[in-house]
Amino acid sequence: MKKLNSTIKFFIILVLSAFIGGLLGGSIVYGEAAINRSLNSFQNFIITNNLLIQAILLGLCAILILILYFSAKLKVKQLEENNDILFDQIDRQLGFLVPFISVTMITGFCLFGITIANTLEDFEFLGFFIFLANTAFTLIMTVLTIKLTKVLYPGKKGNPLDFNFDKEWVKSCDEAEKFIIYKAAYRCYQLMNIVYCGAVTLCMLTSIAVNIGIFPYLLIGFLWITQTLIYAISANRFQHGQLDNGQ
Questions:
Q1: What is the pLDDT of residue 218?
Q2: Which of 162, 189, 204 is the last residue of a domain?
Q3: Is residue 42 domain-resident?
Q4: Which of 28, 48, 53, 79 to pair with 111, CA 20 to 30 A apart?
Q5: How many Cα atoms are found within 13 Å in the side-chain-facing hemisphere of 77?
Q6: Same domain, yes or no: 56 and 153
């Protein structure tokens, strides 16, 4: 009975998805001109104001990173033994700061890519300078944040500028921390499958109104297949003892 209910739910979701997809597809066909205008306007805005967007967005991110870092550093200096409340505050703050620095670096790469695509004939050195400054800043702040984390957790090892940093860091974690890392990694794998599926669907719907070419499909397919193969191969090697928990 349980299997039957699961099957019925699956087909209901499938039918609803097809119905919603049909409605969206029809809406896109009838609103093709408006969608084209909107997408072109958005693209022109990004291209025209790309350098300004880089300067403002990355500048604000840099200010926020500095505020969070020096705030955490001040709290570490004020930390006393057995002050669990302050310890947890610092831990959460650093736990947010590290991924935020990574997001800032990734954003800089993406915006610089737009700069390159828009200035193949007339290269913008200001865009290149902003990219280099953002990359250097995020690397420095990553190193400083990891060092601050080591003050909070003296047992942690690894240099962020070392290619084996992730391996050394995981090895220095206890079993509970490793379990959290592995659980989060699997959660990321699950969600990214949904993201890739959604990205392909979005490309299909967009291609009804705009000729986006085949490159988006090839790129998404390559990333999706690569992730799936890496997960499957790694799981198989872990299962047969060819990899240890630190790799």
A1: 95
A2: 162
A3: no
A4: 28
A5: 5
A6: yes
pLDDT tens-digit map of 168-205: 888 888 888 889 988 999 999 999 999 999 899 888 87
- The DSSP secondary structure of 159-215, one letter per residue, reads -TTSTTHHHHHHHTS-HHHHHHHHHHHHHHHHHHHHHHHHHHHHHHHHHHHS---SH
Residues 78 and 148 grouped into a single domain: yes
Q: Are residues 150 and 181 in the same domain?
A: no
DSSP 8-state secondary structure symbol assigned to residue 19: H
Let me know: does 85 contact 49? Beta carbons within 8 Å: no
Closest CA to 92 of 66, 63, 62, 71: 71
Tracing tokens 């902003």 back to the chain, one arrives at 130
How far is Cα 153 from Cα 145, in angstroms, rounded to an integer?
Answer: 12
Specify the pTM.
0.79
Residue 205 belongs to what domain range?
173-247
- The span from the CA of 21 to the CA of 202, in Å, is 10
Using CA atoms, how far apart are residues 90 and 75, in angstroms rounded to an integer? 7
Q: Is residue 222 part of a domain?
A: yes
Of the pLDDT bands very low, low, confident and very high (cuts 50, 70, 90), residue 120 is: low
DSSP state of 241: T
Domain-embedded: residue 93: yes
Question: Using one digit for the tens of pLDDT, what is the confidence trace for 73-93?
Answer: 999 888 877 778 888 899 999
Residue with tokens 């109104």: 209
Note whether residue 25 is domain-resident: no
